[in-house]
Write a structure and sequence with these properties.
- There is one protein chain.
- Helix content is 11%, strand content 34%.
- With 768 residues, it is mainly beta.
- It folds into 7 domains: 96 residues, Immunoglobulins (Immunoglobulin-like, Sandwich); 95 residues, Immunoglobulins (Immunoglobulin-like); 107 residues, Sandwich (Immunoglobulin-like); 87 residues, Immunoglobulin-like (Sandwich); 85 residues, Immunoglobulin-like; 38 residues; 206 residues, no CATH class.
- Strands 1, 2, 3, 6 and 10 form a 5-stranded mixed beta sheet that branches. Strands 4, 5, 7, 8 and 9 form a 5-stranded antiparallel beta sheet that branches. Strands 27, 28, 30, 31 and 32 form a 5-stranded antiparallel beta sheet that branches.
- It starts with 8 loop residues before the first strand and ends in a 9-residue tail after the last strand.
């Protein structure tokens, strides 16, 4: 269902300039009101009527139409309206009744240009031409301008340009600054439409003396000596340099030693053309000095261009111990494509201004902030993925205070390369220390949050995460003699980068393990030896008793100290003991045997004698001992007592009543001692005094039986027994002497019949 047409609104009309006059075509537009349907079509009729009453119309189904007149009616009143009609009704818009010039839109002013005046460095003269003759339309103008590269325009007040003019002077401009300007115009008699802006006109203002100070700053580093600093002075052109800076003049005060005693003179530092033509703000290196820690210096700088000299800028560097830290709690963070800063301070009344400095890979820049500033952003150029060290310096009356610094990124990304991994020293058996180098700053592209260490022996991959400030880690619990592959991944908040693989093989034996084992075994063996030695020391008696039976020392016997003048007290023999009997031990292998009866025939010598007696009880109560034959080897004729120093003498007890004819004497005789020069040590039987005499007698009787048995193996045992039974003891004569065997007797040796095993003992004591 359709509605009647509604009244069109916002009717506007315009006549465009064509060449040097206005086109007779008038174009109008309006807004449609109400619903339009395809079943009920609304037709619009544009009507233009002049004073003459002539009406020009044109129809359209759209919301615009153009009426072409025969000629544009300058200085004539026109009436314009629109009628809307469909089958349901008809309506018309409001009537526009204005002078024809109101609907005119001219072209922009042509030939807009600047006229340079050297004597006026802060102004530029603009000139243009009227786009249409004043006979048709009287125009007014509007002017806007700005320095090249500016983001906004500056407009000349309309009161200064609301007249028909063809030139205008821009004032309060900056010298040596390139400006761009545009001009437009419209009918001064109520014209509704401004022309388009003219083409740009560009011009640089003339040079003038710099009106602002140069921006002086410094770069401080450690000097060649421990007690000095290396200071570089750098400078920016004044903000209002008003021309190209050709040179800087610098004066250093308070540091005569470093400027060759010319602290009051100015030094000139020319500015190269390459620096002057740089598109970025120029930073000029002035001079470098070595400043001791205990000295201060004040530097003054002026900038000179083609016209004159700038005001003087000064900067003071105090002694290192007197630098005050007036800034604290510095925070830096990126936001909205900018790097923002915030800090706190104390003693703010002494601060004259703050300097915000940022240092990148190869860039150093700074900006100055007001003393009341606590929150700002860096206005200079910053690159993405570059780490900047941002510092805030307090300045008090031109002297630099101690800064507060931190690091920040305008934007972070994943590292462009991974860390290089290596093994520190040689890997051990079960551990290896891995170290890796930090990624270069330009390749980090962000703050390293952590490192992830991966290692594998081919079967399973292990990983360990460490903080970003750690560049080494010791792997433990590794397998011996095993090859491992390792690599490190560095991570930022925006991603990670993996380094190259590194392989190493653990050792089979730890350093010093073999040596330690050998040393341990050696120490154990040494300990065992020491324990054995200690055992031998503490158990010496037991070991000697088991392995080295004790042999009596004849030198410790009391018989060695016996003297005829002081005879030893003899013990009374027991009744069952045969005292005064010496047993003769004859070796069958010698082929000689001395008969008891033939001993008396042996000649006696004064210096040598043959002793066949052995004591059976000297120094003790033993009745029998194993008989031994001892013959003195001394042929010198000296006293036998003189030879006791080299031989151990033995003595045998001889009873005073020797037996002759194997018949004991009825009269008791005094017991005498006979000394021997034999070196044969005493036997156990001679030391053991507790052996029964009867047992000793049986032992002494056993030896002749064995000897006789060896010589007469053909005789029956019964006959030997009878001969032993017929043995009778007879007393020896006290004056009987030993005689040698005759040749016939020696030839008959050994005798056919067994001889007595007992030698008759000589009565008395034989001189030694």
């Amino acid at each position: 269902m359709s509605d009647p047409p509604r009244r069109p609104e916002n009717l506007t009309c315009v006549a465009i300039q064509n060449k040097s006059t206005i086109s007779p075509a008038i174009s109008c537009e309006w807004d449609l009101v109400g619903r339009q349907t395809s079943s009920v079509v609304t037709t619009y009729t544009l009507n233009v009527a002049g004073i003459t009453g002539q009406n020009h119309t044109v129809q359209s189904t759209e919301n615009k139409a153009t009426v072409t007149l025969d000629v544009f009616p300058f200085h004539t009143t026109l009436e314009i309206w629109v009628e809307a009609q469909n089958k349901l009704g008809k309506t018309e818009s409001e009537h526009l009744k204005e002078e024809a010039g109101v609907f005119v839109k001219t072209k922009p002013p042509p030939d807009v240009k600047f006229i340079l005046e050297e004597s006026f460095p802060t102004s530029l003269l603009i000139n243009w031409t009227h786009p249409i003759a004043h006979t048709y339309v009287r125009l007014i103008y509007e002017i806007r301008f700005c320095p090249v590269g500016a983001q906004s325009w500056s407009y000349v007040p309309t009161g200064d340009t609301a007249k028909s003019i063809e030139s205008f002077r821009l004032q309060n401009l900056q010298p040596d600054t390139v400006y761009v300007t545009q001009v437009r115009c419209k009918n001064a008699r109520g014209g509704q439409y401004w022309s388009d802006w003219s083409a740009n006109a560009t011009k640089r203002t003339p040079d003038d003396r710099p009106t602002s100070k140069p921006d002086l700053w410094k770069i401080i580093a450690e000097g060649d000596s421990v007690n000095e600093r290396r200071v570089q002075f750098i400078c920016k052109d004044p903000v209002f340099s008003n021309g190209k800076i050709k040179r800087f003049d610098m004066r250093i005060q308070g540091q005569k030693d470093n400027v060759n005693n010319r602290s009051q003179e100015w030094e000139s530092f020319p500015v190269s053309m390459s620096e002057a033509d740089s598109s970025q703000q120029k930073i000029t290196f002035l001079k470098e000095i070595n400043l001791p820690h205990n000295k201060s210096v004040k530097v003054s700088v002026t900038a000179i261009n083609s016209v004159g000299k700038s005001p003087e800028a000064s900067l003071g560097i105090s002694e290192k111990a007197n630098e005050f830290a007036l800034v604290e709690e510095l925070k830096v963070w990126p936001q909205g494509g900018r790097l923002w800063l915030e800090w706190k301070t104390f003693k703010s009344k002494t601060v004259s201004e703050y300097v915000v400095e940022w240092v990148g890979a190869d860039q150093t820049d700074w900006q100055r902030e007001n003393r009341s500033t606590r929150h700002t952003f860096i206005k200079g150029h910053l690159d993405k993925f570059v780490c900047y060290r941002v510092s805030v310096y307090p300045l008090y009356s031109g002297w630099i205070g101690k800064p507060t610094s931190t690091k920040a990124f305008l934007e972070q990304a994943a590292p462009s390369e991974g860390p290089f991994l290596n093994v520190n020293g040689k890997p051990g058996c079960t551990e290896a220390e891995l170290v890796w180098s930090e990624i270069p700053e330009l390749s980090r592209r962000g703050f390293i949050t952590n490192y992830t260490l991966f290692y594998t022996n081919g079967t399973k991959v292990h990983n360990i995460t460490v903080p970003g400030n750690i560049t080494s880690y010791t792997l433990t619990s590794l397998s011996r003699n095993t090859k491992y592959d390792t690599w490190v991944v560095a991570s930022t908040i925006r991603g990670s980068a993996r380094g190259f693989n590194h392989s190493f093989t653990t050792q089979k034996y730890a350093p010093g393990e073999i040596e330690g084992t050998v040393v341990g075994i050696s120490l154990g063996f040494l300990f065992l030896v020491l324990m054995m030695m200690l055992l031998c020391i503490y158990k010496e008696d037991v070991i000697k008793e088991n392995f080295w039976p004790r042999i009596p020392n004849p030198g410790e016997s009391t018989i060695g100290n016996w003297s005829p003048d002081y005879p030893l007290k003899t013990e009374t023999p027991k009744e069952s003991c045969l005292s005064g009997i010496t047993v003769l031990d004859v070796d069958a292998c010698d082929g000689k045997c001395v008969l008891e009866e033939d001993k008396a025939s042996l000649p006696l010598k004064t210096d040598k004698y043959l002793s066949e007696e052995h004591s059976s009880g000297i120094g003790g109560s033993s009745c029998m001992s194993s008989p031994r034959q001892s013959v003195s080897d001394s042929d010198e004729g000296g006293d036998i007592a003189d030879t006791t120093a080299s031989t151990v003498q033995y003595s045998s007890v001889v009873t005073s009543n020797g037996y002759k004819g194997q018949t004991p004497s009825s009269q008791p005789q005094q017991a005498l001692f006979s000394r021997s020069e034999s070196t044969q040590p005493l036997l156990d039987s001679e030391e053991n005094l507790d052996v029964p005499l009867q047992e000793g007698s049986r032992q002494s009787q056993r030896f002749p039986q064995l000897n006789a048995q060896k010589e007469e193996d053909s005789q029956p045992e019964v006959e030997q027994q009878e001969r032993l039974e017929t043995l009778d003891f007879g007393p020896l004569e006290e004056d009987s002497e030993l005689t040698t065997l005759t040749d016939s007797q020696a030839a008959e040796w050994p005798p056919a019949a067994p001889m007595s095993n007992y030698m008759p003992q000589l009565g008395g004591y034989r001189a030694q």
